[in-house]
Amino acid sequence: MTTDGVGAAASNQYLGQYSGVSSQTIDQLIQADSIPMNLLQNQVQDLQGQEQAWSDVRSRLTNFLNDVQDLQKSDTYNSKVANSTNMSVATISGDDTASEGSHDIIVKQLATASKWTGGRVNSVPDSKTALNITGNFTIDLNPQADTPTGTDGNPINVPGFTIGDGKATSSKVAVDIKPGDTLNSIVTQINAQTKNTDIQASIVDNHLVFTSTQTGKASFSVDSSSTAGIADQLGLGTSQATTNQGQSALFSLDGLPITRNTNNVTDVLDGATITLAGVSATSGTGADATATPTTLSLADDTSKFQGAVSKMVDQYNSLMGLISSDLDPGDPTKADNQTGALVGDATLTQLEESLENMVTEGVSGGNPASPNKTSDSVGISFIDKNGTLGLDTDKFSKALKADPQAVKDFFYSADTDAKTGIVSNERGYATDLAKLTNSYLVNSTGNQGIIALTTAGFDSTIQDLNTQISNFQDQLTAKRAEYVTQFSALDSFMAQAQSQMTYFSSQIGAGI
């Protein structure tokens, strides 16, 4: 054997020119040795696919829980549709305690705030120039009794309003002036106390202007006895300042004369707020003048309730569609059978069965607050053999019209402490579904739900398999080096043998 025919390309392909072993040969040997590691990598891929599938289930289940929880909120059942025939006069809104109904309102006057304007301060050219005066004074805001006359000619008592520290007494703001102070800095000092005093200050053409932040009849006064003359220097003397006194709102509701020190009236209709926006228009003059009433109405908004139930049903179908796909065994008779990512998963199968049973069986054990209601009685039932959930809106509407409280209680009811507002003994269709869903989704310290525990199991197993794969890769690296060493040694041995054979052949040919 000679080496004349072995070129540079061949030397790259073979580890040795005598053994004929190439790097491809070693790759094939390593590939055969890698079969156990490939099996481990396939396991990791399968587990990662299952973990991702559970992540998708968790996301879909979370959306379902959110829709179920909407059925545990009082405003889902008691939202109101408000209407006003003249929004420029008055509007109405209501919370879940407000009653349905309509009311005619006539607004005679709006509540306004008292304003006190001082004389012009001519000692400085503008509000940012130092006054060069020293002293202090106190401004008082005093609520005044207001007894307007109703349409029947009798006086109407106005409930007192609170100011400053929350007491129906005068509110005071003390002002301390130093030589460097300006009209602007005095205003800043006063407004820093507005939250507690209800007195707000501003400057108009070097005039100090004080406004009550509360509407209603009130008066202002100044006490500068500790620093004589300082009030006059600021234009706040008796002969300098003028007052525009505020007034109470005066209106009638369904013919009853009412007055309040605010245009946002919250204590006339339970659960409702009437907002006064303008004075009612009148027709005629003098004794013949007639005011045009505005009709305010509140009606229960059942569309929000029905919409919440419909949304929950849709999300249930979306969730169950995903679960069904994950558990799909495909067609085992086909060679290219495609199965779901979680086929045979007992945990997911249990979730599927629990949800199917609960959405149609209604409240477990029945809801004492609504003993005669079931999911079917309010229009919730399966509509095909595939387990698609449906909402019969006609059936739902009829049940709601016949007994709205019973339908509401079927979905959710609870006991609420009148003093603390603490809710207890929650029950109903939505409560049962929320409890089941939460048992899978909860994931907090010391309280991990079924999905969190399942995912943790995947993570632990994947971590262990990756450790085994890493160790196996180290072994294969060492194995490759061992193969190179072995075949290199073989090639060296064969080279020596070839050299000896050549020598013997030459000796024989020489006749030695």
From TrEMBL:
List residues of the Flagellar hook-associated protein 2 C-terminal domain: 246-498
Looking at the record's lineage, which domain of life comes first? Bacteria
InterPro entries attached to this UniProt entry: Flagellin_hook_IN_motif, FliD, FliD_C, FliD_N
Keyword tags = Bacterial flagellum, Cell projection, Cilium, Coiled coil, Flagellum, Secreted
Main location per UniProt?
Answer: secreted
Compartments it resides in: Secreted; Bacterial flagellum
Q: Which residues form the Flagellar hook-associated protein 2 N-terminal domain?
A: 23-113
The UniProt family comment states: Belongs to the FliD family.
Listed under subunit, the entry gives: Homopentamer.
- State the function annotated in the UniProt record: Required for morphogenesis and for the elongation of the flagellar filament by facilitating polymerization of the flagellin monomers at the tip of growing filament. Forms a capping structure, which prevents flagellin subunits (transported through the central channel of the flagellum) from leaking out without polymerization at the distal end.
Q: What is this protein called?
A: Flagellar hook-associated protein 2
* Organism field: Periweissella fabaria
